[in-house]
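Dear colleagues,

As part of the handover before I leave the project, I'm documenting each prediction I ran so the next person doesn't have to rerun anything. This entry is a single chain, and its sequence is reproduced below.
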Amino acid sequence: MPTPPIQLPDLPDAERTPLVEQLLALIEAMAETIHRQAETIQQLRDEIAVLKGEKPKPTFKPSGMEKQTDPNVTDGRDGDGDGESKGKRPGSAKRHKTQDLIIHEECPIPPRDVPAGARFKGYRDFVVQDLKIEPHNTRYRLEVWRTPDGEYLYGELPPALQDGHFGPGLRAYMLYQHHQCHVTQPLLREQLLEWGIDLSAGQIDALLSGHNEPFFAEKDRLLAVGLAVSSFISVDDSGARHQGRNGYVTQIGNDFFAWFSSTESKSRINFLQLLQAGTPVYRLNDEALAYWREQGLPQALCQNLMAHPTVEGVTTAAWEQQLDDWGLVTERHRRIATEGALVGGLFAKGLSHDLVIVSDGAGQFAILLHALCWVHAERLIHKLIPLDENHRQDQERVRDELWTLYADLKAYQRDPDPAAMDALRARFEALFTQKTSFATLNNTLKRLYTHQSELLLVLLRPDVPLHTNGSENDIRGFVKWRKVSGGTRSDLGRRCRDTFASLKKTCRKLGISFWDYLNDRIGQVGAIPPLPEIVRERAAAAEAVP
């Protein structure tokens, strides 16, 4: 049975003594706690329902701030406030749908009865799109020749067939179905068997996970190039079970690329190691020292660490041993020292000091030059539970003010005007320092106000997005795959999942057909350049546009 909402009486100002105000704030805090506990209970019920094969309760409805502050939407929050026609959706204009199709077969059809004296006047074309699905088995007869000196010469298979008895088209189709369409291996095998393709379960697994080294290498280069050519990255994470245990997947990307990596941790150390795009490098340099001081590491420890020679080429295990040798035993001190050394390693590898990290506010991402997502900030206010009419009105008014400010920040982003910066900052301060009758709302505004520099970074960097919608969209496919298959069992399977998720999303951002990409790589055609090089070219072209 759902918990009934708490409704506070509307007290007149004369009765709002300091003690009453404290009690009201306490009741609000208790109501918020009860609400969060109810959400947790509902989440557990949803998990039980899924295990029983039932459907969970629908999720919390989004506020719609991003959509309704789009410049193309002019009718307010509800989308139909002025009653005017919205017109056709983009791309719905009349077009010739078949004029650009490749015609594979021409089939002239004369009338049934052509009377004498009729004259031929041409054709009225009627184009039909169809799909041919059938097995295509080829017997390669490798010729055997014997030279006069007794040596035997053999014909050689094409390079694309060196992997075995299954052609590149079949393997590309299987990879596409599995990673693009989320078809599980048992269903994929059932489908292929019905089409006359003789494959065992083991062969299915081998074709999906074997001979993927070129894909692994291309995915690994993707992050290094993406970080090198980008002015910002957007990041997010989600759950990703592996071998029956909880794990996490981290997404890093922007408009040109997407990169995924699954690990057992979602700590800041893990994120810094991922950002290094390869073997972690630890450096005790000025950037490391600045990080230690920012995190409050005691000055004496900072001096002791900087007094040691520069750590070169150590592994993670060797670094941990080095900390033991230096006498760092406190868990917090070891963590901060490690994070700082990894930050130093990032800049030693050439990471730009101007690179902005945009996140939803998760602590592990709040490093270096950091920007916060406005959609997540508004969500904190949207999810508050008002206890009376005054609370509801205050919440609505604050949300209206926030939506208006957000729309103006988007307008500034499209057309930066330095003269407007002070006014936007003043509006931000007025919005997030106001006092309402809703104590929980006041605390939320106060907490958001402490992140002013991260929320208003767009004033200094209009190239940086105001939200992490791109990351959430990227990781949504990962969540869907998790719901379909549950998790991975082998390290190779997890690596394949991360790799093809990265390549698939990057192809989509670059406007490249993932199907064409798979056929190009597996068939060794070479018509599509390496994705990291395309990312580099697109980033350079975007930077050249004023």
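The two ends are 59 Å apart (CA to CA). Strands lie at 144-146, 152-154, 232-239, 248-253, 258-263, 356-359, 369-372.

All the best with the project,
I.
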